Amino acid sequence: MIAKLPAGDANREALRSAEKASERAANLTGKCSAFPGKVCCIRTPTSLKDVLEEVGALLQRTFDPRIDLELIVPRSCGKFRPTRAR
Question: Is residue 6 in some structural domain?
Fold first, then answer.
């Protein structure tokens, strides 16, 4: 679908973000299995910078176009390992 849009089309970035989010969701769904009373997940180190940038992109699309969201994420913020849900 992205290839059908002309270069510079504002919808290209939204489609790329949606595609990336759906791939991450599919990956997470494949790693997680719900069982009665507990959830079993494979916890792997995740880039905090990548997560914050993805959340920022999702939030930006929900704001009025006149509002510009600026996230300042240090390059050195590193990775984190998700903890178990309680």
Answer: no
